[in-house]
Design brief:
This protein is mainly alpha-helical. It contains 28 helices and 5 strands. The strands form 2 sheets. Strands 1-2-3 form a 3-stranded antiparallel beta sheet, with no helix packed on it. A hairpin with a 2-residue loop joins β1 and β2.
């Protein structure tokens, strides 16, 4: 067996049998440097060991048939400094599933879907809701999960598959940053309410001494202008009664500042070790809301008036299907509740194993998210129905959405129950876990995008800790504006525009870019490559998704985008009785534009980096980079030495063949 070709450069000398083993003329002809014809040959010095697959071979010159002596050395190839630090992976498939479910099942499932359902025809709303889930939600969800899992990269780096669209990743990063900025303020409010729930009576109930006079006046005069919970929310929590609008933020509410600092500290500690820590935390935070919802439903079913609330929630109004607003609300709720376009799904999927069944996960997570929204409506409206019965008013008078439901209507309903502090603590713990899980996903999108662009942060724990600390502290400082006395006005502005038209444009270009630039057929083949043992139903389902990606989903996203622009132009923005000034709406439009304008900016940069005519540059900029396939999780293999599992016998011919070949070629 010959040594490896590259080893001949190190093996320039050979060893001859000893003179004692030769006799007569044979010994003379084998004298070093003398041939049988008397001519000189190059004299080879002493032997040098041969390296074969990380093992040193010592040649025994005593017997050409003897086995070489092996001096085994550990195979420890030197690390390549050019290779990025290895990426983490989920500890198990359930960690990924629970993380995605926790990310998707957020506050919107509890405080927005039930309100939209009763406002848009009750049970009839479920028809457009599930249609939009099939045509828009599932295809976009699968696209984002597949792109992240196949590329094993974050929202920015993954666009090596099509450098022209790198701006989509930058836009996702900005949207997630805006959402994180105001989303943790909700958790701070939740902390405040949670702390105030450890007292009896609850401070927003009519049983509290401070609210006795107010509640008595409402009962005596028959007026319902301000309830005790509304006064508590506006005066004690927000302090909004001391502000005149956007231009008058006022001082920071120090109680909320402490709550906000604690909220960001929790996020920092949970994100410090990446998915190894957050993947374990979701076992609690993703399942706890379901336990609370079950308890609230059971408790609500035993209350007087709960059936009226459920009836109000589900009573169908078939005429509402003719209204375009219903279909837009259904599409928007699916779009936002699944967390599409924020980069969180893409980042979490990038830590999956390459052969994870992404189609199965998509169906499980999306269907589970939609069923949770429907399920939460029973917990909300059963108790709101009891409050309407106690006040002797229609359910529509007490129903609300958004912060108004979570911090005004529902706490007021809980205050009417026996043992109200216990129910309040359960409810606000549920809101906390819902908010934290969603914030985990958004923060993961930000950190993964940055660490993929700067791999040194991933390999050095000190630098990663410093980066996370600076990031969380920066969000805390920016969030102080939202917890001033006029902070609710800024909160509503960011909430209305950060995830409005900009997010829809980003998702639209993601769908079009993958379908027509990267190639929908290539993308489907990538999914099949990931699912090694692809069952027949997977292949058939991909045909459906392919039709959605190319035709149905872009058209529906375009419909939503046009409707959003029309509604934004015709409908003034309000918070309570305060109407936002024109400059305030312009500021909101600038926030949305800042996110989506990244797409053309970075497309121009990608084209300018190429050479040739404009057409050639465009073609090169939509072509995947050479590092796209290399950096994919399944292609990335660290070079290493291969151990030889069997004995190798070397003879004289193995060491002299190279000399004879050289001599022949010279002749």
């Amino acid at each position: 067996m010959k040594p490896l070709p590259e080893q001949w450069h190190d093996q320039q000398k050979k060893t001859e049998p000893s003179q004692e083993e030769m006799t007569g003329d044979e010994a003379k002809t084998k004298t070093p440097g003398i041939t049988a014809a008397g001519t000189k040959t190059p004299t080879l010095g002493t032997q040098s060991p041969v390296q074969l697959n990380g093992v040193t071979l010592q040649y025994d010159v005593g017997d050409s048939t003897a086995q070489p002596q092996f001096e085994s050395r550990p195979s420890s190839p030197s690390p390549n400094p050019d290779l990025p630090p290895p990426r983490e992976q989920w500890g198990g498939k359930y960690e990924f599933l629970l993380s995605c479910i926790g990310y998707c099942v957020g506050l919107g499932n509890v405080w927005r879907f039930p309100y939209l359902c009763y406002r848009n025809g009750g049970g009839v709303f479920l028809i457009p809701y599930f249609i939009m889930m099939l045509v828009t939600g599932l295809p976009l969800f699968l696209m984002e999960l597949s792109l992240g899992q196949y590329g094993a990269a974050g929202p920015i780096t993954v666009w090596k598959c099509c450098p022209l669209l790198k701006g989509i990743g930058i836009g996702m990063l900005l949207v997630s940053s805006l959402v994180c900025l105001y989303y943790n303020v909700i958790i701070a409010w939740t902390f405040y309410y949670l702390g105030m729930s450890f007292q009896s009576p609850l401070p927003w109930s009519c049983d509290a001494i401070a609210n006795a006079r107010l509640c008595q006046m409402n009962v005596t005069n028959g007026s319902h202008h301000l309830s005790a919970s509304e006064v508590f929310w506006n005066e004690q929590v927000l302090g909004v009664v001391h502000s005149e609008g956007l231009q008058d933020p006022g001082p920071v509410r120090w109680q909320l500042a402490i709550c906000l600092m604690v909220a960001w500290l929790i996020i920092f500690l949970c994100m410090l070790k990446g998915i190894r820590s957050s993947g374990k935390i979701v076992y609690v935070t993703a399942t706890f809301p379901y336990l609370v919802l079950i308890v609230l439903i059971i408790r609500g079913a035993t209350l007087e008036g709960s059936l009226q609330g459920i009836q109000f929630y589900l009573t169908p109004d078939w005429q509402r299907l003719q209204n375009a607003q219903v279909w837009n609300d259904a599409a928007s709720q699916i779009f936002y509740s699944l967390g599409i376009g924020f980069g969180g799904l893409l980042s979490m999927a990038s830590y999956n194993k390459f052969d994870n069944n992404v189609i199965r996960d998509t169906i499980v997570i999306a269907v589970g998210n939609c069923c949770t929204s429907f399920f939460a409506g029973f917990a909300i409206f059963s108790i709101l129905g009891h409050m309407a019965w106690r006040k002797n008013v229609p359910v529509g008078k007490v129903a609300d959405s958004g912060p108004g439901l979570a911090f005004v209507a529902y706490p007021e309903a809980l205050a009417l129950l026996p043992g109200s502090p216990f129910w309040a603590i359960l409810f606000f713990l549920m809101l906390f876990t819902l908010g934290v899980d969603t914030l985990f996903g958004n923060m993961e999108g930000i950190t993964t995008a940055v660490m993929d662009e700067f791999p040194v942060l991933r390999g050095d724990m000190k630098k990663k800790t410093l980066f996370l600390a600076v990031l969380c502290f920066g969000f805390f400082l920016l969030g102080l504006l939202l917890i001033t006395e006029g902070g609710i006005y800024w909160f509503t502005l960011i909430d209305s525009y950060a995830t409005s038209f900009g997010l829809i444009i980003i998702t639209l270009f993601m769908c079009l870019g993958i379908s027509f630039f990267y190639g929908v057929n290539q993308f489907c083949q990538d999914i099949i490559d990931m699912i090694c043992t692809c069952p027949p139903w997977c292949t058939k389902v991909l045909w459906y998704f392919k039709a959605c990606w190319v035709f149905c989903t872009p058209l529906l996203l375009l419909f939503i985008l046009i409707y959003v622009f029309i509604e934004m132009y015709n409908t003034p923005l309000h918070y309570g009785s305060y109407e936002y000034p024109r400059w305030g709406k312009a500021l909101g439009v600038c926030m949305g534009t800042l996110c989506c304008i990244q797409i053309p900016i970075w497309a121009i940069v990608a084209i300018c980096k190429e050479s040739g005519t404009l057409k050639d540059r465009f073609r090169k900029s939509i072509r995947p980079l050479k590092t796209w396939r290399v950096t994919s999780g399944h292609q990335f293999v660290t070079p290493q030495m291969v151990e030889v599992p069997y004995t190798v016998n070397l003879t004289d011919a193995d060491f002299t063949t190279q000399q004879w070949e050289n001599g022949t070629s010279d002749a």
